[in-house]
Design a protein that fits this description.
This protein is an alpha/beta fold. The protein is 44% helix and 17% strand.
């Protein structure tokens, strides 16, 4: 079953990567088409070049007799520099283990390369996996159960931020732990709202009223819009949950909504038709949305929490964040990646030494979170003085963490990759081509059911 499942996802991921080259939201540090709102990630100069999937794994003994641990990740740009710096700190902290970090491209590219490497028995010891792909690898039995390793380190799953653990346990095995994680959030130009005497929106009705009030139109040209968001499945999925629907049903056989998806897209189309919503082109949509926001051409934006750091640096106005507005309830899907210990590793103890250090040492994951702006993923991090100081300086980050109380596990199914491709087609049809909402969603539902039966 392993080869069949991995091959199926490999094919779907390759197709999806081709369709979405250059697409995605902004700020996660790695391009993904998995509803994470992440940007394309160029390989950082400091990162080790990605080897071909058939490359022979590094020998267990590294320089100076150290055990070599290979860690594959999908962080480029500044976040790639931060992960390289973290690895360097670990290597300098002890004399037994040498971690080699290798940038493997986007989350989708990482899945393809890891599938090939598993088949060739040349995989890494530790892998960074976008959380929506973990279930497929877990069902293929190539991820190690880390429960015994946690026990040996006097740790447990309870030590981690609860809202980020939804993609960690499969088949009663703890196969991944949160690391570079984010959620969508509402980013607001509060200066613009204040000038109009507008309050920060808490509901969809509020959002529509505020967004329309911010519109500036001269003749047939919109000079300013109310709201924008990247082309990504993340944001409509969040809204389906806010309307009290689910993306998949509990039986894993179909979609989990009745009218909630149609309500979501009709709401977005109504706003798009009045200029209250600017829906950017698919190509480079995340960067376009970010630029629209920082340049004052739009007042509000649905975007990843991973963009907070760059927005703080670039916004020339009073910039704040707020929960994704509710319809019936507050809800937010999570995104980003977890780290997993590969069951084929010959160096599990050494790999775990690195992973446990990253989870517990202040110079490990905590410093990476402080540098990058991803969400703190352990309770000790949240309680640390460093995080408290950062939240005091940048309250937008605390809002992002507080929103985790409404986190949802929105796309847990081994068929997610293929279904996600179909959902992107539906978004394109509705938001770009003005196709009928109900007819488009009916087609999507039928395709989803066909895929989930396979």
């Amino acid at each position: 079953m392993m080869k069949k499942k991995l091959s199926t996802v490999l094919m779907a991921t390759a197709m999806l990567s081709g369709v979405l080259a250059g697409c995605g939201g902004g700020g996660g540090g790695a391009q993904s088409s998995s509803g994470t709102g992440s940007t394309p990630a160029p390989a950082p100069a400091a990162s080790t070049p990605a080897p071909a999937a058939s490359t022979t794994p590094a020998p267990a003994a590294g320089s100076g007799g150290k055990v070599t641990v290979n860690f594959w990740h999908s962080l480029g740009g500044k976040n790639g520099e931060y992960i390289d710096a973290m690895i360097k700190r670990f290597n300098e902290s002890q004399s037994k283990v040498q971690v080699v970090g290798t940038f493997q491209g986007s989350y989708d590219e990482m899945v393809t390369k890891l599938q090939q490497a598993v088949a060739a028995k040349s995989g890494p010891d530790v892998a960074m996996l976008e959380r929506a792909y973990i279930q497929m690898f877990a069902d293929s039995d190539v991820l190690e159960d880390m429960t015994p390793f946690l026990k040996k380190s006097n740790m447990s799953a309870d030590d981690f931020t609860q809202g980020l653990m939804g993609h960690s346990v499969f088949n009663k095995k703890l196969v991944s732990l949160p690391f570079n994680r984010s959620t969508p959030i509402l980013h607001i130009n509060k200066t613009m709202l204040d000038e109009k005497g507008l309050a920060i929106p808490k509901t969809w009705d509020d959002l529509k009223k505020v967004a329309n009030a911010l519109v500036v139109k001269e003749g047939n040209e919109y000079k300013r819009y109310g709201l924008t968001m990247p082309y990504d499945t993340w944001y409509p999925i969040a809204m389906i949950y806010e309307a009290k629907g689910k993306f998949f049903n509990d039986a894993g056989t179909s979609v989990g909504y009745t009218t909630e998806a149609a309500k979501t897209f009709q709401f977005l189309k109504d706003m798009q038709n009045t200029g209250a919503l600017y829906y950017p082109p698919a190509q480079d949509s995340g960067n376009i949305a970010n630029t629209m926001f920082t340049s004052g051409k739009v007042g509000m934006m649905f975007q990843s929490t991973g963009t907070i750091g760059s927005l703080v640096d670039n916004a020339k106005f009073d910039y704040v964040t707020a929960f994704m507005p509710m319809d019936q309830v507050y809800a937010t899907p999570t995104g980003g990646a977890n780290v997993s210990l590969m069951s084929g590793s010959k160096n599990k103890d050494a790999a775990w030494e690195f992973m446990s250090w990253a989870m517990t040492d202040p110079k490990g994951g905590l410093q990476f979170v402080l540098d990058s702006g991803y969400l703190p993923f352990t309770k000790k991090m949240v309680e640390s003085q460093q995080i408290k100081d950062q939240w005091a300086k940048q309250p937008a980050r605390k809002v992002a963490y507080d929103q985790l109380q409404y986190a949802t596990d929105s796309n847990k199914h081994v068929a997610w990759t293929q279904v996600n491709q179909e959902f992107l087609k539906a978004i394109q049809a509705i938001m770009y081509d003005n196709k009928d909402v109900n007819a488009t969603l009916d087609t999507f539902k039928k395709e989803t059911e066909r895929i989930m039966k396979q």
